[in-house]
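Private note to self, pasted from the team thread so I don't lose it. Backbone tokens:
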């Protein structure tokens, strides 16, 4: 099969399409003919040599895809050859075929075409597991989403808005702020020329209840300033670095929580439980069109390098796809 391989750690130019052996499936696994794969920021790190796949996972980059079931391994129930699905992957998405643990396979939501479905697994699983399963956002509470126009952010805004929460978000341009408002954000803050802590203080009664943070170190102190009493900060990204000082006194007085999680490295059982919860709670909203996958741009598989360069430019909104 054709797959995208990084010939060596480096820039987008190291991504090359190569012929490699088809993946073999074992018990509990399904072989998928890939229709499209979604790009994730972690893919850029993996290409640069900083984010190796977890033990046992494919070396091929790609943490989500959509496609058609081509074969079903022993002990798999509920899936048959020819079914259309989308999948959360530990790796292997940038290829014509991928082996997937059956629990990480999800049906294509009603009303979504097969290619677009590749844009949903990572954002749905990340947002649902962090904002709702871990931080327990409630309908009457306020969520601050950093990077609201990105793949994760655009899904988080819609989901929290549809489930009845107030949503505050940050983005880096007037166009992106307008896109966030159109998706349901109540307050949109330009992180380039506004201080989000000041705006949160003006626009809320004592701060936000939950923050979904992509910046890590750079925003740690200010995120705690923006939290309301008993607020929960969930850090899922390190775009602003990994090391910062935590003012425990400030956090303690707010009785706040700081949580950091990642999805890819978790055991198959945990990822399968998240996928099942996503299908139960998120899919109905997608099927009704209340929460929509936002695809900014698609590239053919052979142009994976151009797709990475585009994501690195920061010009995109929503998800970037590779079509196979
Ligand atoms: N832990 C996990 O399990 C997990 C899973 C999936 C993703 N993630 C992480 O989640 C983050 C978002 O992923 P993605 O796929 O949505 O990537 P993306 O589409 O490339 O979005 C990146 C976002 O970062 C925003 N940003 C850049 N500088 C910022 C700043 N100073 N303040 C606030 N926002 C800023 C960008 O905003 P503008 O475009 O408006 O400039 C953009 O919305 C990444 O860090 C990714 O690694 C973590």
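Design output:
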């Amino acid at each position: 099969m054709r797959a995208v391989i990084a010939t060596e750690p480096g820039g987008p130019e190291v991504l090359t399409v190569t012929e490699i052996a088809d993946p073999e499936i074992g018990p509990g696994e399904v072989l998928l003919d890939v229709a499209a794969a979604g790009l994730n920021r972690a893919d850029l790190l993996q290409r640069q040599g900083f984010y190796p796949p977890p033990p046992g996972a494919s070396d091929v980059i790609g943490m989500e895809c959509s496609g058609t079931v081509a074969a079903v391994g022993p002990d798999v129930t509920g899936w048959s050859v020819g079914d259309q699905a989308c999948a959360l992957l530990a790796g292997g998405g940038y290829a014509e075929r991928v082996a997937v643990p059956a629990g990480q396979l999800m049906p294509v939501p009603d009303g979504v075409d097969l290619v677009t479905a590749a844009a949903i697994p990572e954002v749905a699983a990340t947002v649902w597991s962090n904002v709702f399963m871990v931080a327990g956002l409630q309908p009457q509470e306020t969520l601050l989403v950093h990077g609201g126009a990105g793949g994760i952010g655009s899904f988080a805004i819609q989901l929290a808005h549809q489930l009845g929460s107030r949503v505050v978000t940050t983005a880096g341009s007037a166009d992106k702020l307008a896109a966030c408002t159109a998706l349901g954000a109540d307050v949109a803050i330009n992180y380039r020329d506004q201080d989000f802590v000041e705006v949160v203080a003006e626009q809320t009664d004592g701060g936000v209840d939950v923050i979904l943070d992509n910046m890590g170190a750079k925003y740690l102190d200010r995120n705690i300033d923006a939290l309301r009493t008993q607020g929960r900060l969930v850090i899922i990204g390190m775009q602003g670095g990994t090391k910062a000082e935590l003012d425990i006194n400030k956090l303690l007085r707010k009785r706040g929580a700081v949580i950091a999680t990642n999805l890819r490295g978790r055991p198959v059982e945990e990822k399968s439980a998240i996928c099942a919860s996503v299908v139960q709670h998120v899919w109905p909203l997608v099927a009704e069109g209340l929460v929509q996958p936002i695809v900014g741009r698609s590239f053919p598989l052979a142009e994976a390098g151009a797709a990475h360069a585009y994501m690195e430019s920061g010009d995109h909104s929503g998800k970037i796809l590779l079509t196979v």
